[in-house]
Amino acid sequence: MAALKPPTSLAQQLTLLRNRGMILEESFAKQWLTSVSYYRMSGYWYPYRRLQFPHDPKDPVRLDDFETGTSFDEVARLYEFDRKLRTLIHDGIERIEVALRAKVGEQLVTRGALSYKDSSAFRNEFKHAEWLSKAQKRANRAKPRNQSIKHYVSKYSDFPFWVLADVLDFSDLSILFDGLITKDQHTISQSFGLNVNVEQLSSNQKGKYFKQDPFARWCEQLTILRNTCAHHGRVWNKHLTPVSTNAFRTIPELSDLPEGQSDKLFGAILMMSFLIRSISPGTTWPQKVRILIENEYLPLRFRSIEEMGFPSHWQQLSLWGENPL
Among residues 12, 24, 67, 221, which one has the fewest Cβ atoms lying within 10 Å of its Cβ? Predict the structure, then answer.
C-alpha cells in the first residue's frame, strides 16, 4: 500500500502549479488556495490536465502537466460557475421536494391520516418497517424544536402524515414514493404532468411501466444530485446514477432526453425544468440556468457543453420555455 502524500505549504503548491504549466497571478492564487484549499480546487483544474496520447475515451488517463494556456483565473471562473449552478439546482430541487411531499401526502391520506403506518398501502417488497423506524427517529429528533410534532405528541397518541412530512428529507420521500403501489405512483406522477404515451412503448417497456412508475428512479437520481449540492460537491461534470428515459421520452416536452438512459446533468436539468414549470407555471428557473451557462460556462477555454451531456443544439430546446429575460 502506497504511503500518503506529505502535506505541502502554500509556496510549494504555487511552485508545483507553475512547474506543471499553469499561468497564475500569485496574490490571486494565494487567496483562492487559502479560502478554498488546494485539494478542492484540484477537482476543477483536473480536466485542464493534458490527456495521455493515445488515450482510450472510455478510460482516459490525464498527465500532471496542464494544457498550454491554462490559467488559474479560468479555473477559478469554472469554480464560480459550478457554485452558482449548484445554488440554482438546489433551489429547483427544493421546489420539487416540497411538491412531492404534498402530492405523496395527498395520495396517502385518502386512506386515512395514519395510512403511512399501514403496510398494505405499499408494495410487498417495500421495507416498510425499516422506513417507518427511520421516519420515527427523525420525528423524535425534531420534537424539541418542531412545535407541530411536540403538539401532536402531547395531545394525541400519534401524528398524521402531513405533520410527519415536515421532518422527512428528499431521500425519505423518494424511498417512500418507490414503495407505493404502482397505481398510486402513476397518480402522483401524472399530477406533475408526466403523462406517458404507453402505446409508443415496446412490450417490454410497457411491462416495466406498469410494474413501477419511472418517476421513482428519477426521484432517486435527483436525491443524489440534491445531496451533492447540499454538501457543496461539483455538479457541472458529475456522473449521476443512470436512469431510464424510454417512457418519459414519449412526452413531447421530454423527447430531448438522451436515448435509453440519462446519467449526466443535462437530463436532470431537463427533467427539473419540466417539473418546476408544472409546479410553478411562469417560473424563470429554466431561463436562469440557460443565462448562467451562456454567460459563465461557454466563454471558458477547453470546456465544451457536451461535458455536461448537453446536445449541440441545446439552446433551441423547449426546456427553456420563453426566451431568456
Answer: 12
pTM across the whole model: 0.92
In a domain, 265, yes or no: yes
In whole angstroms, how far apart are CA 291 and each of 88, 232, 237, 284, 320? Answer: 12, 21, 18, 11, 10
The C-alpha atoms of residue 179 and residue 188 are separated, in whole angstroms, by: 13
Q: Per residue in 77-97, pLDDT tens?
A: 999 999 999 999 999 999 999
d(CA 134, CA 162): 17
Q: Write the single-letter amino acid at 237.
A: N
User: Any residues with CB less than 8 A from the CB of 234 and at least 6 apart, and which?
Assistant: 43, 44, 82, 228
Give the three cell numbers for residue 235: 455538479
Query: Which pLDDT score is estimated for 324?
Result: 39
Within the chain, residue ranges assigned H as helices are 10-19, 26-35, 38-45, 72-108, 128-142, 147-155, 161-164, 170-179, 182-191, 203-211, 215-230, 265-279, 285-292
Closest CA to 19 of 53, 61, 70: 70
d(CA 232, CA 82): 10
Low-confidence ranges of the chain (pLDDT < 50): 323-325
C-alpha cell belonging to residue 193? 404532468
Q: Dihedral of CA 179/181/183/184: which sign?
A: negative
122 Cβ contact partners less than 8 Å away, ≥ 6 residues apart: 128, 179, 180, 181
Structural domain count, the chain: 1
* Percent helix, strand and coil across the chain, each to the nearest 5: 60, 5, 35
Q: How far apart are CA 189 and CA 207, in angstroms?
A: 17
Cis status, amide bond into 54, omega within 30 of 0: yes
Angle between helices 72-108 and 285-292 (to 10 degrees): 160
Which grid cell sits at 247?
Answer: 417512457
What's the domain range around 144? 79-310
